[in-house]
Amino acid sequence: MKILILPDQGDATIRAADMICESMAARARTVLGLATGGTMEPLYAELVARHRQGRLTFADARSFNLDEYVGLAPRHPQSYHSYMHRHLFAHVDFAPGATALPDGSAPDPDAEADAYEARIAAAGGIDLQLLGIGRNGHIGFNEPTSSLCSRTRVKTLTESTRAANARFFAEGEEPPTCAITMGLATILDARQVLLLAFGAEKAPAVRAMIEGPVSAFTPASVLQMHRRATVILDQAAASMLELREYYHTVHPDGAPALV
Ligand code: PGA
């Protein structure tokens, strides 16, 4: 794992955008794995700004999002379809049909999950997968005790995840109880993964992911098994890491490796 600790979230977001641009420049028809959540909003704003400046095009790219709530139609304002449209797709130049999310309103969510996994494989797999991390160590909606070999499927959300996401829903509206999510093995198949975590509330999960044992109880710890995993943190999210000084030495302020 490459651990990059940046002075603050703004610097960290720029660094992540740089890595995405480098990855897209290196490959003509990049397949991006995209994520949702508060962490990604400034990153998508940065990508939109670069697109408007003529520095970044998505014209040849494809994308697959990690997850979608079961029971929310794509047009529902809190669906991840709507989120992606609001924060990225409406503002950049993906070709029609080049972006994909699981359909949370599919009549048979299990069949939809299997079909989504097959669509990713048919596209040749994911080149660069973006990830956030939940306070309980989830990635995508792979909640604690998710199989480390899991594929895209329906997962029941924990109460802590529903409580964390309640802030995005209107007052009186309950967050859904289930989601279709890429599995941990689906995520591990990506050729490169880039996880972002900011703020002190993520520090325990970040520590467990990087320095704890590989365990289904901390699903993000499975990234220890990935050959090209980069974690971008601000100081607060990195504050509980035992080897913080070492990571700083290898990548001062998140710079490329010294060796
Ligand atoms: P957040 O969510 O970016 O809103 O903190 C991350 C996650 O739960 O994966």
Task: Explain what the structure shows.
- With 259 residues, this protein is an alpha/beta fold.
- The chain has one domain (2-216, 226-239): Rossmann fold.
- The protein has helices at 9-26, 40-52, 80-87, 109-122, 159-165, 184-188, 203-211, 244-250, and strands at residues 2-6, 31-34, 62-65, 67-69, 99-100, 128-131, 153-156, 178-181, 192-197, 229-234.
- The protein starts with a strand and ends in a 9-residue tail after the last helix.
- The model has no long low-confidence stretch (mean pLDDT 96).
- It binds 2-phosphoglycolic acid.
- 2-phosphoglycolic acid is lined by residues 37-39, 132-134.
Morphology: globular
CATH topology: Rossmann fold
What is the residue-averaged pLDDT? 96
Helical content, roughly? Answer: 25-40%
Number of strands: 10
Sheet/helix structural class:
alpha/beta
SSE pattern, N- to C-terminal: EHEHEEHEHEEHEHEHEH
**CATH class category:** Alpha Beta
The set of bound ligands, ions and cofactors reads:
2-phosphoglycolic acid
Strand % is 15-25%
Q: Radius of gyration, Cα only, in angstroms?
A: 17 Å
Strand order, main sheet: write it out: 1-10-9-6-2-3-5
Distance between the termini: 15 Å
User: From the coordinates shown, what is the CATH architecture?
Assistant: 3-Layer(aba) Sandwich
